[in-house]
Amino acid sequence: MTATSSDVLREVGPRLRELRKKSGHTLAALAEITGISVSTLSRLESGQRKATLELLLPLARAHRVPLDELVGAPPVGDPRVQQQPIHRHGMTFLPLTRQIGSPQAFKIIIPAGPVQVPEPKTHEGYEWIFVLSGRVRLVLGDHDLLLAQGEAAEFDTRTPHWFGSANGEPVEFLSIFGRQGERMHVRARPKKAA
Fold first, then answer.
1. What is the CATH number of domain 86-190?
2. pLDDT in tens, 68-101
3. pTM of this prediction?
4. Among 54, 43, 51, residue whose Cα is nearest residue 71
5. Which residues pair with 81 in a beta bridge?
6. Where are the domains of the chain?
7. Tens digit of pLDDT for each residue in 138-181?
8. What is the full DSSP assignment across 21-44?
9. Contact, 174 vs 106, CB < 8 A?
10. What class, spelled out in words, does domain 5-71 have in CATH?
């Protein structure tokens, strides 16, 4: 069962009273320090007054506690993304985002191997890629592009597309995929004629 914001605000009153008593302040002394009236402080502590940010900020400063502690906010979880590699089509995809849905970010690793024959596919969405190392061949509709380290491209994935190593050497790049991705500038140069 999760606590609602009104539950959290109800718990603020007893917490405020406990902090005030621990510091040895009377309501009158705390009112003088914070500029909040004695009656408002009393109603906050008893839960008869809604705790607003304008009231909580001076109280947090007076008690020298973070606002999160004052309202009993839950601790922030571990922000690190646990990378569970996905192996598909001879590539390794390392998820860089935790949330299911859109947008999703991946580090994609293509190992050294024979140069693949492009097989363009389409699907809903929008993709942005940024090359970390190696050279990526991007076939996008009628375009056949080479992207070197530091170059980026973006495209609507409803356009037939395919990417792979340009020369059989290992490649690493970042990919951000979303249903309605933010549009960025394409920085790629056309593949040189052989």
1. 2.60.120.10
2. 777 777 666 777 777 788 898 889 999 888 776 6
3. 0.55
4. 51
5. none
6. 5-71, 86-190
7. 999 999 999 999 999 999 999 999 999 999 999 999 999 886 54
8. HHHT--HHHHHHHH---HHHHHHH
9. yes
10. mainly alpha
